[in-house]
Target: ATP synthase subunit alpha
Amino acid sequence: MQLENPTIAERLAESLFDRMDRMLAEAEPAIEIADIARVLSVGNGIARIAGFPDLCADELVTFAGGGIGIASSLAADRVGVIVLGGTERIRPGDKVHRMRRIVDTPVGAALLGRVVDPLGHPLDGGGPVRSHERAPVERTAPPIMRRAPVCAPLQTGITAIDAAVPIGRGQRELIIGDRQSGKTSIAIDAILNQKQSGVISVYCAIGQRASAVARVIDTLRRAGALDRSIVVVASGDDAPGLQFIAPYAATTMAEHFMDEGRDVLIVYDDLTRHARAYRELSLLLRRPPGREAYPGDIFYIHSRLLERSTRLREEHGGGSLTALPVIETQAQNISAFIPTNLISITDGQIYLSPELFEKGQLPAIDIGTSVSRVGGKAQLPAFRAVAGDLRLHYAQFEELETFARFGTQIDAETRNRLNRGRRVREVLKQPEHVPLDVPAQIAVLLAATEGLFDTIPADRVAEAGRRAAKAVRDACPDLCAGIEGGAELDSADRDALMTAVDTAVADLRTEAESGNAVA
Model:
């Protein structure tokens, strides 16, 4: 088709050419240098790439098909990359770009009340995390000269722990036991008990079922504890790489508050699955296996994580990070490779016995096997005065009870000791997610060890304990405040507590004595 007016066409063409000439004259060519590698192979959460001669360890890379990874196994001709996510969209031959930064995660107050993955992506449907700060998930532990002695207690609200296996702020206390023995319940109770203490809590779920994590989140939300907590989730359905970095990312989130001078409690649930995820990655990266097929650096993997938990000196902020790592044993074998590693790294362990669990002794804490190497020094003075000899007396009672099963003739003194020991055991029983404050625990323990519950039937000791706890709070509020503030417990205070408890359980004791008289 020919134009009717060629003069106009010529003018338009000339104008267009002039404009293109000006644009070309004004354009300044920019040279962009980029490191690009290629995927050699991919599968099972691991990708092997080639083309980066100077890639750093733990540096992030991005794949053209989507997803990111961590450079882990560096070699001259290829690099093993841990993929943080699915590998379905990554194909051999795809381009790989460097991000020129190591793996990091968001930190700050914006994370409180949120459920996120190790990279800070929200999992609770609450929108993006509004945090402007990020920090590397790997960080050197505080040097020894910045650390302060553990001198403040971290109350869990569980009488058996606070009395016999106390935990201090800045301590690392291992929770160990077989599957389905109540390990997570103890950790969650410790978080719930921080509602009035000002301690921030971080719960890190590693390799757990989604349903189990959902129950934990629901428990925290219903108890009003989620608003001062962070939940980091790398479920069993996630990539092993996410499970591996999850505890490190959670620790980085917690350290942010510790550096601000605040006290933080972190729960790793559990490090057995973390070790298995790292074993899987190591074997896929062709690293030589060691004992139980775990890589040789598995001890270092956990020690560099737990060494970050400490209490800082006042000139460095005075904050603390208390760790409660959870570990699962098989057939009560605490001498297996991973349990012995973690026992040697931590400052004590809370051992949960399947036999006690089956007998209904909940929480199923074996006081004889459990130990705290630090927390006793941080125990409140009033608590130390009441529960100082509890471990010894309870161990003697259990041994005496074992021997008493073989004989029929028991003298009166032995019978009284067994009777009192059974009452103390009943006092140490505690419902799930019902933490007790310190004055209530002291009052109940004092009443049980001093014999106020001796004539009350064992099946009604729990009711007597509830009455005693309420009576002390109502009758001695000033004394309770002093106990929580660290005051000593003198003889007058002990008498006041005993009087309040005696009044509260008088009718139960009268009913028991009248029933015995009739019988």
Summary: Residues 34 and 106 are 27 Å apart (CA to CA). The first strand starts at residue 36 and ends at 43.
